[in-house]
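Narrative summary of target 7.
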Amino acid sequence: MSSDQYTIAKFFSFYISDIPGILVGLAVLSFLVLIHELGHFLVARRAGVHVEVFSIGFGPRLFGLKVGETEYRVCLVLFGGYVAMRGDAASALEGKPLDPATANELERRWSGNTPALKGYEDVSIGWRAAIAAAGPTVNIAFALLALWVVAMVGVNIEVKGSMVLSSVDSAGPAFKAGIRAGDTVVSLNGKPLSGASRFAEDVATSLEQDVRIAILRGGKDSVFTFRPMLAPIKATRIGWAGMDFGGRLLLARVLDSTPASRAGIRQDDTLLSVDGRQPTGAEDFIRTVQGSEGRPMRFALARKEGRTVVELSARKDAKDGRWRIGVAPMDVVPTYFHRFGPVEAVGYAFDGALDKSTAVFRILGKLLTRKVDAQNLSGPVGIVRASGAIARLGWEKLVDWMVLLSLNLGILNFLPLVVTDGGRLVELAIEKVRGRKANKAFMERLSMVVVGLFLMLALYVTYFDIMRWNLFK
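Modeled conformation, tokenized:
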């Protein structure tokens, strides 16, 4: 096989192996866009505005159905959507303006006994503001509703007081500063810890900045200062300390046709011990497998059906010479299961939404102050890939991810930018105060400039999304 043939074969095998994840990711993104545009659509119809097109996606039309005077369509580029309303200049930029013959035909139908349908500009400023706000409002409402339902079904809640380090990578800055596995982390930069995920976020956004970590060891408090180093993740600039929290070691993924899968190890098995020894964390487990050099090992596992023991031998990777069994270990922070009542779940939903919403502004603030590099952002490609990966961790993790995405979509669309719903609201507020609309030609030119800037940003983050996907390695 020639090198070109090998590259092409690897390209297709890569995508074929990831197709289920891609489909899940597309479904997640399309659903969030659908409910966003449905918000605009329903309020527009309530206001009596004629909606010409309800579209999921942009670009060439793939298929569609016309019901009444509205065409419902799916377009080639699924990363977005729009509602094209009669007389809306912004919709005309996205959709297709009515030709004179069609416009005359619609006017003829509207002039009959049917109640007259209006154009977007024919309704009051209040109705236009409601139409603009409806999309992001629905995204935020969906996030709250999803959190409320999940809380009543039951959630695994992180044990806040058990922030014990299961492993500390010897190559990381935390180890070099003196932090060790078994230490209890008390605070970061003088602030008590609110959870492992927030700790990881703060470290990731502190690249090349000193962090102070208070540790409890043997009943004594100590403070360690170190500077997170560049994480060993391709095409990403985030901080890394080499610290993992855990109470148990979860096998988050089991690859097909590997020693692990052939021995009967399943995804979501909990690893209890290897040859009678309990690994302290993911890094320790990897070192144990590497050090086995192909010798048979006995794995004690826990799963829903009970405990089991399997025997297998690691296989040497021909590419890098490392011994592997085909699993992805993950340190899991201790949690407890709790099912909320309907009233109690309301508080849980608002607290969860508030925490995720403030994360959006924290990241935006660090982007503006250049504490976080823009290459760490993810566009549609990264979101699709991440959705597929998170779906493998279970429905609870996937719903939590959808909540985060939906809140992001809602909040970012409320920002007062020219091409967002928030920008439209600002434009309407100015019209209300001044008593007349903004200059149409100026707004169209400004929109084109902003759209161009957004497209450049999209191309920038998509490039790094593809590089992180290791497609061309």
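Residues 340-468 form one domain.
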